[in-house]
Amino acid sequence: MPESRLLPASQSDCRTVSDPVKEAFWAALASIPHGRVCSYGTLARLAGLGRGARLAGRWLGQLPEGSSLPWHRVVNSQGRLSLPADSPAGQEQFARLTEEGVSIRNRRIDMKRYGWPD
DNA sequence: AAGAAGGCACCAT
DNA sequence: CATGGTGCCTTCT
Questions:
Q1: Nucleotides of B under 7 A from a protein CB
Q2: Residue ranges of domains in chain A, CATH in brackets
Q3: What is the DSSP letter of A64?
Q4: A49-87 pLDDT tens trace
């Protein structure tokens, strides 16, 4: 089973390698405004990944725990939280979004209202 | 609402 | 280096 190699999370934040595409991805992620959410697909597109929605999810999963990047502002295209509700990360995501003022009803978010970019 | 198919880099063989 | 299975997805039946 994979899922072993986590990032050093040394100085800045994440990034195991200096991949330009990933850099763009992290930048796009960081640009999501407080209190707003973005879908994996949209984020991927913004970062120049084209249809790399799944890849976006994979990469988010590689972020170190203490990351300051707003990984929690990424949900699926239907505005639903894609992380398992019972997982630590899932709970964390819910908590952070709620704290930011994002209304989550039954694990769903109104993208018309909180979706970004508009 | 639920299932199938598309799409793309990752990772283990 | 080639190959096949996989995922924090999307979009189209």
A1: 6-12
A2: 20-114 (1.10.10.10)
A3: -
A4: 889 999 999 999 988 888 889 999 999 999 999 999 988
